[in-house]
Every structure is written in structure tokens, then in C-alpha cells.
Amino acid sequence: MADGMSEPSGEQTMACICVFCGSRSGNDNAHAEAARQLGVTLTAHGHSIVYGGGSVGLMGELADAALQHRGRVIGVIPEALAKVEVMHQRVADMRIVPDMHVRKATMHRLADGYIALPGGYGTLEELFEVLCWAQLEFHASPVAMLNLDGYYDGLASLIENMVQQDFLSQPYRQLLTSATSVADLDSWLERHFGTAATTGEK
After folding, report:
1. What is the pTM of this model?
2. Per-residue pLDDT, 86
3. Across the strands, what pairs with 78?
4. CATH 3.40.710.10 fits 16-191, yes or no
């Protein structure tokens, strides 16, 4: 999939990156390792992370790695899921919200950019919602997915088919950047957000 990156402009500040990812780790440890690498990478850049607030699966791996390196992590979780066995107990900034709709609205309000790691229905729903909002020009924040080991090849093919069947215009295809490694995401972060070291609460 083509890279929809644009040149950054103006002063660069630390960003809050919204990460969508699975509450499972999958059967390939490479996905868990990538989630950990991303947590470390975002922290190394000085960026904050906003995510779904879970302690399990890729969500837990991402948060644990960032916290271990003293990163700022914001969790947003619906009341129905705010249970000890699910909610991350070490995320100090945990925002418990009434439902999934408020969860996504809260994450979007905080986010300067979006990254989708592997996941299931929930991850895809979150990813496509922010892409749809970008298409409608409700926001101009960059969106990327980690297509590690071809995990999202089928999705990339589906999007290509949408364009070929004239259900999606070519420019909107460019709204989603596909990265094959955390190193690619690192370059994407540098391109869009730089590595500046000052920010304030959004």
C-alpha cells in the first residue's frame, strides 16, 4: 500500500499517539514483540500513548513496555470492561468512560496520530472509523497500520479492490500508511512529529 505521508510544517512538539491493538497476543510472538518495541519507540521519542486501557494481549504488552521506560500512558476503558483482570492496574491516567462510543471519542480528542497493530473486529472498527473521519475531513491526523509478516495483506487487497471497483477514490487510499516493521513506524513518526521534547496536556 502506498505511503500517504506529507511533509510536516511548523514547530514540532511531542505527540499523543493513539494505538489500536488486540486484547489477545495471537499465536506468533512477533506481534507481542512488535507491541513492546512500539511502546519503547514512542517513549524514546517523548510521545504519549493513548490506548484501550487493557492489561492483556497486545494492549498489555504495549503499555508494560512504555511504563517500564517511564513513558506517559493514558488508558481509556468502558465501565463494563473496567475489571481487575482486564484493566491495567499500573496505568495511573486511566479514564473510565460510560461506553464504547465515549471511549473512542475520548481517544480521538487526545490523539495527534493513529497506529493500528494487529487485532480483531474491535481494532478494525477503530481503524476504519478514523479513516472515515479523515475522508470526511473531520481530522487531518496521520494514520498507519503495522502490517507485520503480512498480517494486513488481505485488508490492503480489499482496499485496492475498493479503488478498482470505484467505491473508493484513489486519494482516500493514501490516507492509510502501511508499515512492515516498527522501524518503518519510527520513520513515519519522525516524518510527521519529529522528536521535540516539550508538550502540554491536550
Report:
1. 0.89
2. 87
3. 97
4. no
